[in-house]
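Entries read sequence, tokenised fold; example below:

***
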Amino acid sequence: MNVDKVRDLQEVIARDMAAEAPTGWTRAIASVTTINGHTWLDFLAQVPGEDEAVRYFPDQATFAAGDLDEAMYEPGKGTWFSMECWVLPSGEYHFTFNYDQPATFGDREPVEESWINDLRRHPRDWDKIPDWHLVKQRYTEDEWLASVQRYRDWLASDDESPFKG
């Protein structure tokens, strides 16, 4: 994990969320899920006088959030499935990362193979893969390790066809 890059990306996210939030906001909240390059983002701001949180779209925060999972990858540990960030007008912010629980994509879900390929891209030690994950349902530990190696070999090759695990 590149700690400096992670810090920089988090600062970009928090700063842009604050800068782009609607007038009068009291708290901004980002929810992000990213699996194998499929990303779902939701930025909401609490605004006094509004019955519901106001949805908005901070561009720089969106791009930075899309890079944060890769920057936070750690061999053996993997990377997060989803994260939340809240920001206050004072500039205070906080991030929470979900490495172990199922994540949602709003009203859409990526195909099952995306969940598996996400762990090929960001491998974890076998004991760090949650029991609910499709990898644990479809593979033994040895089969999984062989699949990850085939994926690495495919990435290093000139093969332009889709990976067939």
Q: What stands out?
A: The domain at 3-156 is CATH 3.30.500.20 (Murine Class I Major Histocompatibility Complex, H2-DB; Chain A, domain 1).
